Task: structure prediction
Amino acid sequence: MTTPNRALIVVDVQQEYFAGPLEIQYPSVDDSLARVAEAIDAASAAGIPVVVFQHTSGEGSPVFDPSTEAFALHPEIEGRRRSDWKSITKQYSSVFADTDLLDWLHENSLDTVTLVGYMTNNCILASAAGAEAVGITAEVLSDATGAISLGNDAGHVDAETVHRTLMALLDSNFAAVATTKGWTTAVSAGQPLAASNLPESATAGAARFPRG
Result:
């Protein structure tokens, strides 16, 4: 079993997600923030490099305006910042889109990204799916990420259903999904996370929810 060369990718843990319509709802924002901080501390102790992202929609935008306080990282994250962290500002959902992350991963011989932060239903989803296309293994920590409830012409879905559904979807093909505790255990053992795949997930799903 090959030991992963990991980077912890802290995605958009900005004040924008702690109040207002984008406030993370499931897992609760306080609980998920605590797990993000736990993952950062575990990565630092294990010598895993940390990359911290902040999203911008440009000045004057209703959300993620870099001239506002809502753009800032949460103090729990900012207070942990170290000089060796890599900081990136992004404008698209995926951490790989129009950033130098992939080049930096290659330069540092890193083959696995562990995604924590927000939101499950946007940047975590896009980043995990984007990793496959560039040959990088993705991990997602289910309790160190979070979703919001959604409503539009296609339907209305509560945050817990959004989050749980996307965790199952990601683990079926795009990323290995685990809790922060499970990940820290794997890190200590120098092991990859166990992941499902589409045939296994389809078989288990059909057994649980048979047709007709």
